[in-house]
Amino acid sequence: MSKDPMTEQEQILFACIDNCCYFKLRGELRYTNATGMDDLVERLFRQQPDCNQVVVDLNEASFMDSTYIGLLASLARYCQQQQLPRPALFSTHAEVNALLFSLCLDQAFDIIQQPTQHAVDMVPVSAQHYSEQQQGLMILRAHEALIALNDSNKSQFQPVVDLLKQQLE
After folding, report:
1. What percentage of the chain carries pLDDT values higher than 90?
2. Contact between residue 11 and residue 57 where contact means Cβ atoms under 8 Å apart
């Protein structure tokens, strides 16, 4: 397992332009570097910005773990709750796409297997310092979002959720 030389700050880029929220996620996306994304999504839920459309660019993502995919599921659920259009997700990486489809993200996102053309000025999102408890809660929420997305994810992730709940008591 190679260590990704990209810092978390370079992995998550964000912009909100003309009522469209853009997320660009790059490199190896793991729970160990997900605090910035989790914090950003949580803040968006709380602040309810003037965001009428969400676009996620995964074209530079080389790997995603289930926690990160759960964060994307949370983002899609937020769009649904706000009665926004389904978010668009751009991804040309075959392994990432296989994972997205296997975990039913195509039911929550319009997955577009093409490079992105937009040149948007984006700001890096900093890592947040989470306690072990906060990190555990983030992983729990992400996996609960995956289960909520589709029943077929339940058999895969319910044991993880049950174990996390036990550990976080």
Report:
1. 74
2. no
Query: What is 123-134 written as a DSSP string?
Result: EE-------HHH
- Give how far Cα 38 sits from Cα of 102, 111, 112, 128, Å: 22, 21, 23, 9
For 29-60, the DSSP string reads E-GGG-HHHHHHHHHHHHH--S-SEEEEEEEE
Three-class SS state of 97 = helix
Dmax of the chain from CA atoms? 46
Tokens of 1: 């397992």
Entry field: residues in the chain: 169
pLDDT score at 1: 38
Sign of the Cα pseudo-torsion (54, 55, 58, 60, in order): negative
pLDDT at 34 over 80: yes
**CA-CA-CA-CA torsion sign (18, 124, 59, 160):** negative
Separation CA 99–CA 103 (nearest Å) = 6
Q: Is the pLDDT of residue 98 over 60?
A: yes
- Measure the CA–CA gap between 8 and 104, rounded to whole angstroms: 26
pTM for this model (two decimals): 0.90
Return the SS3 of 48: coil
